[in-house]
């Protein structure tokens, strides 16, 4: 796995480079990922707007800031993502704000469809669900923990609504968006911190 992590990191993006890539592709009427369609492009555009908003509004809680400032060893947060993914658009800005608090955390983003071998080690219920974060010790490339694709409260909401509606539909997507808006990134911060040494 160490070699796979290292290979993935060589293909990774900083948060800013990832945002720039997504924005550039949108101007070319494209999205990241293997599949291109009008629907996927529309999701990418919507997600770019969401991330712009969250970059301005997400606040790292004082408790989380204190814990992050106490980290004394270097870690890499390696995150599998794609520009069309609604959950990633809600979560990556929070991860970025957290990583900015401490010099001991480096956020690296890799595209799922370009890193299928890595993705297939981190399936959720057999699927390539994203975003998926792998916390690595920077010196040893050992996995400390992993997290994703969404906070536990959002997971429970999606499961309930999938059972109610018989799958994913617009009502579910709207409810999930409202959950993220109401939560303001607090659950993401807490859950990542609980996994972090």
Report on this model:
- The chain is built from nine helices and four strands.
- It has a four-stranded mixed sheet, with helices on both faces.
- The protein is α+β, with helices and mostly antiparallel strands and 197 residues long.
- The model has no long low-confidence stretch (mean pLDDT 96).
- The chain has a single domain, classed as Glutaredoxin, CATH 3.40.30.10.
Q: What does the secondary structure layout of this molecule look like, with pairings?
A:
Layout: H1 2-10, H2 15-27, H3 38-57, H4 62-69, E1 75-81, H5 86-101, E2 105-111, H6 116-119, E3 132-137, E4 143-147, H7 152-165, H8 170-183, H9 186-195
Parallel strand pairs: 1-2
Antiparallel strand pairs: 1-3, 3-4
Helix pairs in contact: 2-3, 3-5, 7-8
Organism: Paenimyroides ceti
Protein name: Thioredoxin family protein
Pfam family, one: Thioredoxin_9
Structural key phrases:
Thioredoxin family protein, 197 residues, alpha+beta, globular, 13% strand, Thioredoxin-like_sf, 55% helix, 4 strands
Q: What is the name of the CATH architecture?
A: 3-Layer(aba) Sandwich
Q: Tell me, rounded to a whole number, the average pLDDT.
A: 96
Quote the distance from N terminus to C terminus: 20 Å
Number of helical elements? 9
Overall outline: globular
The CATH H-level homologous superfamily: Glutaredoxin
Number of strands: 4
**Residue share in β-strands:** 5-15%
Under CATH, the topology can be stated as Glutaredoxin
Q: Using only CA atoms, what is the Rg?
A: 16 Å
Strand ordering within the main sheet: 2-1-3-4
The total tally of domains equals 1
């Amino acid at each position: 796995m160490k070699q796979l992590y290292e290979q993935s990191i060589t293909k990774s993006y900083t948060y800013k480079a990832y945002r720039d890539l997504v924005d550039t592709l949108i101007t070319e009427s494209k999205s990241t990922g293997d599949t291109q369609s009008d629907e996927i492009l529309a999701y990418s555009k919507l997600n770019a707007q969401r991330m712009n908003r969250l970059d301005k509004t997400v606040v790292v809680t004082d408790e989380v800031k204190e814990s992050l400032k106490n980290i004394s060893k270097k870690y890499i947060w390696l995150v599998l993502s794609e520009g069309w993914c609604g959950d990633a658009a809600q979560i990556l800005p929070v991860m970025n704000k957290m990583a900015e608090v401490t010099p001991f955390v480096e956020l690296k983003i890799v595209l799922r469809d370009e890193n299928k071998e890595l993705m297939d080690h981190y399936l959720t219920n057999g699927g390539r669900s994203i975003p998926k974060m792998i916390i690595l010790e920077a010196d040893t490339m050992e996995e400390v923990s992993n997290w994703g694709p969404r906070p536990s409260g959002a997971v429970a909401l999606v499961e309930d609504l999938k059972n109610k509606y018989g799958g994913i539909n617009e009502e579910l997507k709207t409810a999930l968006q409202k959950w993220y808006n109401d939560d303001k990134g607090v659950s993401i911060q807490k859950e990542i911190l609980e996994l972090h040494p």
